[in-house]
Structure formats: C-alpha cells, structure tokens
Amino acid sequence: MKTFRGFLWRFLFKEIVPPQDLIAQYGRFLAQLLANRGFSEPPAESVISFRAQTVPNLNEAGEKILNAVKKGKPIFLFGDYDVDGLTSTALMFKLLRRLGAKKVFPVVPERSEGYGLLPPFVEKFYKLAGGGLIVALDNGTKEVETVKLAQKLGFDVVIFDHHTPGEELPPCTLVNPKISPNAPQFLKDLSTVGLVYIFAKYLERSGLTQIDPSWVDLPALGTIADVSALSCLNSKLVRKGLKFLNRRETSSVGLKVLLQNLRLEKLNENDIAFRLAPRLNAFGRMEKARRGLKFLITEKEREAQKLFEEMEALNNRRKEITERITRRVIQYYERNPSKALIYVDRIPKGILGIVAGRTASLLGVPSVIFSTDGRMAVGSSRSPEGINLVKVLKKISPLMERWGGHSQAAGLSVKVENLEEFKERFLQEVERYPTPTPTLEVDFPLQPKHLRENENVKNALRRLQPFGAGNPYPRFLFEDILLDFKRNRYGFTLHFERNGKLYMNATDRGEVIPHHLKGKKLRVVYSVDNTERLDLQVEYFLWV
Prior knowledge:
Elements: E1 8-11, H1 12-15, H2 20-37, H3 58-70, E2 75-78, H4 83-99, E3 104-107, H5 119-129, E4 132-137, H6 144-152, E5 155-160, E6 173-175, H7 185-188, H8 192-205, H9 217-225, H10 232-246, H11 253-262, H12 269-285, H13 289-297, H14 301-335, E7 341-345, H15 352-363, E8 367-372, E9 376-382, H16 389-395, E10 402-405, E11 409-415, H17 419-430, E12 439-442, E13 444-445, H18 448-453, H19 455-464, E14 475-488, E15 491-498, E16 501-508, E17 521-530, E18 535-542
Parallel strand pairs: 1-12, 2-3, 2-4, 4-5, 5-6, 7-8, 13-14
Antiparallel strand pairs: 8-9, 9-11, 10-11, 14-15, 14-17, 15-16, 17-18
C-alpha cells in the first residue's frame, strides 16, 4: 500500500508485540511505543551510572586545563560555526571563567575560512601569545598535522569532539567517546556541548568548581540542533535544559533576549529545532559566526538585543536564498535524474547543508551540494537512511582534500580538477547500495478525541519526550474518515469527518492536494507537534 506521495507503510503495532512485563509496567499504549523504538523504558527516565574514566582522556584533559589555569597560561578556545560548536565554546568559556582563568580567548572560524583547526589559526595564536593551551571544540579529531604544528610551536592541545575518527588520531589529549570501542553508546551519542557539560559536572563532583544548574540549557540546544540521537543521556540533558529555558533561567543574556523576543509560551524540543536553532545557525551560515558566539557569551542586555535584531535579518535572508537555490537544484535533478544528486555552483557555503538535506529528503537520493571558487569545491552531503556516507566517502577519500561527518551527513572539499572523477566514483559507490525505499512507520491506531480526552495517553507521550533523532514523534492511524477541503489564503484547509463529526483541521500549503480523494473514505496518519497544546499534524493519507 502506498500514499499519494509514494511511501511504503509499516504498521508497527501489527508487527511488534510488546513484552508482557513492559505492558504491566507502562500500560498497553506506552509499552507499544517503547517496543516500536526498541526501548525497555522511556530514555529520559533511565538510570545512568558511569565513571569519568569511561570517557576517553577526560581525567587528562582536566589536569591539563587546570594546570593552564593555575599557571596563568593563555587558553585559546577554538570552536565551530554551527550551534554545537557555538554552544560548546560558550560553555567551556563559562567554565574556564568560573575556574578563575584570566587569559581565555574564544574563537570560532567563519565558513569561508574552512572547517576545523587549520594551520593559519595556530600560527595566529602563536603570534598573539607564543604558546599556551589550545582547546578545540567540535572539531580536531582528524587534525593530525595541525596538532603536530601546534606542539612544535609550544602549545599543548586538548580536543573535545564527537566526530568519527580517521585511521590516525592526533597526538594530543583527545576527549571523544568514539575513539573507544568500550565506551557505552549513550556517550558516543553525545554532541560536543554535551561532552563539555559532562566535563564540567566531572570537575564539580571532584570538588574543583561549582557550575550553575542553568548551564544545561546549552547542551539542550546543541543536542537538538546537531540532531544527536536522543538516547538516555541526551534525553535527560534536553529535558532538563527545557525546564530551565521554560523558567527563563538561562545560561546567557543572549538566550534570555531570544526567548523574550520570540514570545514562546512553553518550549519543547520542536521549538529548539525549528525556532531557536535556525536563528543561532544563521550567524554561521551567513559568515557571522563570531557574532553568534558573542550573542551567547555577552553579559550586556542591550548588546544582546542588537545581536538578536541582526540575527533575525540574517535568518530571513538565509531563508530567501535557501528557497531559491533549492528550487534551482531540484530543477537540475529533474533534467538529470540519477541515483545520487551532485550539484556544483557558486552557492553561499552556509546554506549547503540545508539544501543538501532538503533535496535528499525530497528526492530520496544522496545529495552532494558544492560551492566552488574555481579552484576548490567545498561541499555538504546528506543521505536517506540505508546509504552510509562515511563508508561511501571513505572508499574515495584520495580524491578529497578534507572530509568528515556521520552516516547521513558529511562535509568535504575537492579540488576542481578532481570533481568529474569524484562524481563518477561517488555514483559507483552509491550504486552498490539497493535503492532506498521510503518507509512510513505508524505506531498505533488512535482517534484524535482519545488523544485529547484520555489523560493516560497524554501522560504517556510526556513520559516518552523529548522526541527527535532516535526517538521519533509517534505517528497515529485514524481510519474510515472522509476528506473535504476549502481554499484559504494560506493554501487549503483540510477537513476530516467521521459519522458527520469534524475530527481534525489541517492546513496544506498547496504542495500536493489530492482532489480525487474528496469524499472518499481514507486512513490518515497524524502526529502530535506539541504534547501540551496537542497540535495535531496530518502527515499522510492512505487508500487501498
């Protein structure tokens, strides 16, 4: 069975039977949702216990950082331009200030300067201070040669990162759970800012400092923005961070100003993903990453307000450019269909990832979007489930100058003269995989009125929060209903009726309107956007 959008459907409630002990403990509804996700308990309610030694090199990192603070050495924090990079740099900056460090210099690169700890930055630090400590955040795992250069110039180097390591590790203190085969998966799922928060808590438990409880809002932001898997530890960080954000007890003046201006009543993880994160990311996408860092660490409300206004203008400009270029790329693919999309043009580097993500999702194929200056092509790639970009790129790594990322998202740089061979080899590797079949998984049959009226159902959904990567929003099935729709100024208002009663309203922007289904009995799949307001989002129709 397919929708009019071509998805194959899986009814998980028919395929997966929850264990009896799970049903006894949580009830039939929540037990089914847990079993569908392979959980034995709600992730945020899991009891976690691990020693600091479980995190590779955490003790050594603490010793080096505390030693640098004690001796008054200059400490350069080198982050990244995305939200995880900005929040991890801001959190480490706050921690070092709390530890008493006087010479702390937080730096993030602009996208045009390249990703990662590059030699020009190390050389600049050397000219400024002649040595000291460099702490790389959300980058550095693959910067072997740059680390060697830094050490040659008299710097000690500590790296906090969560990216997949290469074959050779940098010869320094590397705090990255992914380098240890024995590290539990919940540590490997951490974003960099989550890792820095664990480090801060480790120092606090060691009696070396005391951190503000509100600092957990930064891991909540970075975890959701970086689409990190919401396993037990990440779920706890996000849930706790949301509590402080909703109480307006934030770690920074900038975040307080942001929340005041957006006037959000009660935030959830969706608000972070679609309201907060895109705005914070706009700084880096539009070559203003350093302004983004300033927004998170400033202690002046007037300055934060000015930065917010700048952020809004940048974000609006970013959206306009993104929509225009996405349309252009899709038109190109329609003229040149293939098992992968590879597009090269003079595109602002900051929107490459968004365009790659949207096109991969819409077209159902791996997407690599390059921006070129005539000599070097800098790209961002995204892939649907079933095709591992790390494995694909690893096979053709000699053709790239730099690359790194995750199974479904990666960044890369290719010399222009190597682009044609890269395209050919990339397609060859992708063709080794079977064509991904878009699949829509449905959790449970549930009438909207039961969702609104049944407190047990609402409480079960709250217990399963936060939703996101690794713990998707539940999708519910509503059967035997009639569809009608009327045009409005936004597109179309869809009406779903059963036995003459209106059960749901939904707005469709006009992307796909199934006129031939008007008046027919359908199955509808919907999700809940907000478990407090119970905003129902109609996702797909099904007819046999």
